[in-house]
Amino acid sequence: MRNRPNIPGFIAITVLVFFYLPIFYLVMQSFNEARFGGPWRGFSLQWYALLFDRPEVWRAVRNTLIVALSSTAISTVLGTLAAWCLHHYRSRLQQSHYVLVYAPLVFPDLLMGISLLLLFINLGYPLGLGTVILAHITFCISYVAFVVLGRLQDFDYNLIEASQDLGAGWATIIYRVLLPVMGPGILAGALLALTLSIDDFIITFFVSGPTSATLPLYVFGMMKQGSPTIINALCTLFMLATFSIVIWGQRYLYRR
Amino acid sequence: MAALLEIQSVTKRYDNLAAVDNVSLELEAGEVFSLLGPSGCGKTTLLRMIAGFETPDSGRILLNGKDITALPPNKRTINTVFQNYALFPHMTVFENVAFGLRMQKKAKPEISIEVDAMLDLMELSDHASKKPNQLSGGQKQRVAIARALVNKPKLLLLDEPLAALDLKLRQRMLIELDAIHDEVGITFLYVTHDQSEAMSLSDRIAVMNHGKFEQMGSPVEIYEAPINSFVAAFIGDTNFLNGKVTAMPNDEFCTVRVPSLGDLLVWKDKDVRVGEELNLSIRPEKLRIARKKPEKPDLLNCIQAVVEDVVYLGSLTKYRLKSGEYTLIVEQQHGHYLLDEKPITWEEIVWVYWHSEDGYMLQSYQQDDESLMALSEDMPDE
Ligand SMILES: Nc1ncnc2c1ncn2[C@@H]1O[C@H](COP(=O)(O)OP(=O)(O)O)[C@@H](O)[C@H]1O
Ligand SMILES: [Mg+2]
């Protein structure tokens, strides 16, 4: 018994190394003085300085923020409403609604990107920030709906009857009971939508126009031009931002 | 004086099933009224129509003479204590109790005074700033009651409020509920499937089955004078005897021949004629047993029986006896255990006797109802 190999511990460490070694390497390289990465030549912030001199970077950041925030806001509202309908009405229509909302979760992104592109072209809708936002809303709704639906399953409908019983009308019930109780669930859905939207490459690739490149598209472009060290710096900042959102979200969600 | 709540021929159907079937009821102000019946008999459905969560398919509901059948729940001066409490998880105890008063747009200081007084009454003052998930079951229950009562409703509806609590706590809350009712004087409509809760709390009880009222009356009436075998068996253990009237010795008694038991003298609870079929219910505590035949058997019925089972319960002993085709249940206190030569035990042949007035003539009898009694659990068949 004493010398039993610690297999679960070994697996955990392997998985962690597998996940975080590339990221660690990237972060390290972003501070490396060497021009093309490789061996360590000393600490330097020059790539960060270079990054801040490039206006296209800031345009991409701005585009990403506009797309992520607006698609998150809209898909959170629509996804929450969809979840409410799915939870409360069990008609034929809602059964097909369920399948249709579920489908985008398993659809290949490629298929979704191409079909959206075809739709926009056929409608004569000019590609740009507008089409990117629409596309992001489309896939975010499904994720929000499923996160919120999961939380709704635990929601005690008696709370609504109890509020009515105590004299509350619908506006008060939504504002004082439904949103506060469902808040963490809706927020979790919104955070998921936010990170998915910031992250998305394939669908955005198909539906974006010449001036509407988001960060992932911009990074991809820079790769082709071959400036890996700037990309390292950009990705490190990008990662920092994503982690902050997630950590803040977790804290907020588990505080209650 | 007009009734506080009037239910006039209310019916509610789900698909083909009449959950509540043409029920009428009048509640007086200040009384505790219980709806008692087995699970699925329609109690909750009736309560939900009174609260306003369901609309009747037909019939009317009046509160203080005003038709409220179509009024939404938030417009009724009626409050409900939900079975699973339904406390707001994101609010403190204080905020939960204050919710109704805030909806009435009362001033803050006034709300604070009334909530504090209510928390005091319910002995919750120490927990005012706790969230519901920090409370025990009994405390949650008291918050639920406080949250309803603080609005001073005309009528308080309670749907199996004690069902989720364990036995000890249930008995304590029952006493507390009684005390609260004495304190606030609000009319209680209490739903339960537990006959002992209904008996100990209520001024009146309606026994419900398949969406209909079987009988309505005081706990004593329901227990002592059940209208049929369902009520008799649901409200407690009893012995059913079935026979035919053979003679009328005088105005007050008749003779009933019960096959395999013999001729019994029975007090006439209703008009009967010679030749009529009759069903009797006799409560186990009305029967007595002894080794010797009683000395003055004038108005007593005495039959012989064999003891099949003895269950000593401390305050009393339950005996199962076999006499003819009947299995009789007797509950009797130990008279003088220490003086007795020997307590009655298995296989003994004993005399069972009861006063002719202690049986009750049922209006109707169905054999299925015998399975409602708890006795099958206490005394399993060999
Ligand atoms: N919303 C509903 N839809 C269909 N049937 C229902 C509904 N609510 C209650 N019922 C049926 O009505 C009957 C009475 O239910 P209920 O009033 O809850 O009984 P109780 O409270 O006495 O246990 C039951 O048979 C139940 O299945
Ligand atoms: Mg019920």
Question: Which structural traits does this protein have?
Answer:
heterodimer, A: 256 residues, mainly alpha, MetI-like fold, B: 382 residues, alpha+beta, six-stranded mixed β-sheet, five-stranded antiparallel β-sheet, 23% helix, elongated, binds adenosine-5'-diphosphate, binds magnesium ion
What does this structure look like?
The complex is a heterodimer of chains A (256) and B (382). Chain A is an all-alpha fold and 256 residues long. Chain A has one domain (54-255): MetI-like fold, CATH 1.10.3720.10. Chain A is built from eleven helices and no strands. In chain A, helix 3 packs parallel to helix 6 (129-153) and helix 6 (129-153) packs across helix 8 (170-199). The longest helix of chain A has 34 residues, at 55-88. The mean pLDDT of chain A is 87. Chain B has 382 residues and is of the alpha+beta class. Chain B contains nine helices and 20 strands. In chain B, strands 6-7-8-3-9-10 form a six-stranded mixed beta sheet, with helices on both faces. Chain B has a five-stranded antiparallel beta sheet with strand order 13-12-11-14-20, with no helix packed on it. Chain B is elongated and about 75 Å long. Chain B starts with a strand and ends with a helix. The chains are: A mainly alpha (256), B alpha+beta (382). The complex binds adenosine-5'-diphosphate and magnesium ion (MG).
SSE layout:
The complex is a heterodimer of chains A (256) and B (382).
Chain A: H1 7-30, H2 46-52, H3 55-88, H4 92-106, H5 109-123, H6 129-153, H7 158-165, H8 170-199, H9 202-207, H10 215-225, H11 228-255
Helix pairs in contact in A: 1-11, 2-11, 3-6, 3-8, 4-6, 6-8, 7-8, 8-11
Chain B: E1 5-14, E2 17-27, E3 32-36, H1 43-51, E4 58-63, E5 66-67, E6 78-81, H2 93-103, H3 108-121, H4 137-149, E7 155-159, H5 167-184, E8 187-192, H6 195-201, E9 204-209, E10 212-217, H7 219-224, H8 229-234, E11 239-247, E12 253-258, E13 262-267, E14 277-282, E15 288-290, E16 300-312, E17 317-323, E18 326-332, E19 349-355, E20 360-361, H9 375-378
Parallel strand pairs in B: 3-8, 3-9, 6-7, 7-8
Antiparallel strand pairs in B: 1-2, 1-4, 4-5, 9-10, 11-12, 11-14, 12-13, 14-20, 15-19, 16-17, 16-19, 17-18
Helix pairs in contact in B: 2-3, 2-4
The complex binds adenosine-5'-diphosphate (ADP) and magnesium ion.
Magnesium ion binds at residues 43-44 of chain B.
